[in-house]
Write a structure and sequence with these properties.
heterodimer, A: alpha+beta, OB fold (Dihydrolipoamide Acetyltransferase, E2P), six-stranded antiparallel β-sheet, three-stranded antiparallel β-sheet, 9 strands, 25% helix, 33% strand, globular, B: alpha+beta, Gyrase A, domain 2, Alpha-Beta Plaits, Elongation Factor Tu (Ef-tu), domain 3, 3 domains, six-stranded antiparallel beta barrel, 9 helices
């Protein structure tokens, strides 16, 4: 699996692109299985880096979504309310929210595509 | 402290593996611990699996499950029937040789030791198929409570690899591998025959999916188990067979309102509350739990199991609170999930008798919000009659 290099990744398996779009990784959707429900905050909500901002549910499990960076939600991907399976189909295209990042320096501490890939393979080795 | 008085350290029991464990891993299954067993929860999307696909395969075609973690207790001898009657709530005297029935082992309080399928295999021979998580407890219970009968009690849980072949096409798949005439075997009856060259294999037309299907009991060595598993997958290709994990097993049984031990039934829930009185024969000879149930029946129910369907957006999960219209807590969800075939979010819940009427509105507390749900008839899913 190669991860797109136009974005940053977290150890909680989220990604954030340079224009502030946030989603979960292909690895995350694969571990969750069939995604049936995505609950997202409203436009205008303030997110704090590392804190939960929503929920994604597969048939079997409920998982929290963690904000990769702090900022204000400027857009929500409404399609996921009716087609949550889009996350399974293409997790790196199925963005969840778009945020106006408060401090771009916060992104510097996140993982590059190569580092995230390494992190996932090490995690799998446990 | 002297060595003699040392208490062994309280180590967690090692996780157990079925004879098909390596096969599941080879097929790329996601493994989880379930009741002390390392079991597949679902197989990968790359081979057409995942909980939803596995569930749909069983409803519309066929799927196979490794259920070797289930346990087996054999009772045989001149008083085997008396022993079975004493420890189980259904009427085993009604069973013909080769017939099976859903039943339960009860505590004197009328609550559940476990639910079981009782098979009558011979004139004086019965096989109880029990849950994985309650194997030792069940065996001890059966042994200790049948001592007064002339009957041998054997724990055969490790003597079989048990494979369930479930779905409307299950009979077609298994028929390709056996000389037994499966068309002559009715639902909840068993037969014996050669399967994949193995002689005298027990095959029951039973399951835990609310669908037609068979459960077969084969020798427990890894080689034989793997050989039969792959033979079934090969024979089932033309019917679109897929391997299925515990994830689909749970959603299938939930749609059919089949109880799961520790959820809908337990040592603190009685027969009336669980709504399984259809299988509890109060007019048969004395059995453990009967007196307490008689008394409880006179006192009336404090709670009862109902089916819920989410009206507003949200998924009820095991353990979530059920709230009344005024927001007060009235009960709890025992099992909740999206229902892949019905395409609804459903749940089973214990609520007071005031909230059991079909159409009643309740709320399920999901992440602090009371999300609207409605009491609906159960089972949620009933397989079409042929």
């Amino acid at each position: 699996m190669s991860y797109p290099t136009d974005r940053k990744y977290t150890k909680e398996h989220e990604w954030i692109s340079s224009d502030g779009k946030v989603g979960i990784t292909t690895h995350a959707q694969d571990s969750l299985g069939d995604i049936v429900f995505v609950e997202l905050p409203k436009v205008g909500t303030e997110l704090t880096a590392g804190k939960t901002f929503g929920t994604v549910e597969s048939v079997k499990a409920v998982s929290d979504l963690y904000a990769p960076a702090s900022g204000t939600v400027t857009e929500v991907n409404g399609e996921l309310a009716t087609s949550p399976e889009n996350v399974n189909k293409d997790a790196h295209a199925a963005w969840m929210v778009k945020i106006a990042v408060k401090d771009p320096a916060e992104l510097n501490v996140l993982l590059s595509a190569a580092d995230y890939e390494k992190f996932v393979s090490e995690e799998a080795g446990h | 402290m002297s060595a003699a008085s040392a208490i062994p350290p309280d180590l967690p029991a090692p996780v157990r593996k079925t004879a098909l464990n390596a096969v599941h891993r080879q097929m790329g299954a996601k493994m989880v611990e379930f009741n002390g067993w390392d079991m597949p929860v679902e197989y990968p999307a790359s081979i057409g699996c995942g909980i939803v696909n596995e569930h749909m395969a069983v409803r519309t075609g066929v799927g196979i499950f490794d259920v070797s973690h289930m346990g087996d207790i054999r009772l045989a001898g001149p008083q085997a029937l008396d022993a079975v009657q004493h420890i189980s709530m259904n009427d085993a005297a009604k069973l013909a040789i080769g017939q099976a029935q859903y039943s339960a082992l009860l505590y004197p309080q009328g609550t559940f030791v476990d639910d079981v399928i009782v098979h009558r295999l011979g004139e004086e021979e019965y096989l109880l198929v029990i849950n994985a998580g309650t194997r030792e407890k069940d065996f001890n219970w059966v042994r200790d409570n049948t001592r007064q009968f002339d009957c041998k009690v054997e724990h055969l849980s490790d003597d079989f690899t048990q494979i369930a072949i479930q779905g409307p096409k299950g009979v077609n798949v298994l028929q390709k591998l056996t000389d037994a005439d499966l068309g002559a075997v009715k639902f909840y009856w068993v037969t014996r025959g050669t399967v994949c060259g193995l002689k005298n294999i027990l095959m029951g037309r039973t399951g835990y999916t609310a669908e037609d299907g068979f459960e077969i009991y084969i020798p427990p060595d890894e080689e034989t188990s793997a050989q039969v598993w792959y033979a079934i997958l090969e024979a089932g290709k033309e019917f679109g067979v897929v391997p299925c994990g515990l994830g689909a097993r749970n959603t299938l049984r939930l749609e059919g309102k089949l109880p799961l031990y520790g959820h809908e039934i337990s040592d603190t829930i009685n027969v009336w509350e669980a709504g399984v009185e259809r299988w509890c024969k109060m007019d048969k000879p004395e059995f453990i739990g009967r007196a307490a149930l008689e008394k409880a029946r006179g006192e009336g129910l404090k709670r009862t199991l109902v089916g819920l369907e989410m009206v507003e957006r949200g998924i009820a999960r095991d353990g979530y609170k059920v709230l009344g219209e005024d927001g007060g807590e009235i009960g709890y969800v025992t099992s909740g999930s999206p229902a892949p075939f019905l395409k609804k979010n459903i749940a089973l819940a214990y609520v007071p008798p005031t909230h059991v009427e079909v159409g009643s509105t309740v709320r399920v507390e999901i992440r602090g919000q009371g999300v609207k749900a409605q009491v609906v008839p159960t089972p949620f899913y009933k397989r079409p009659k042929k």
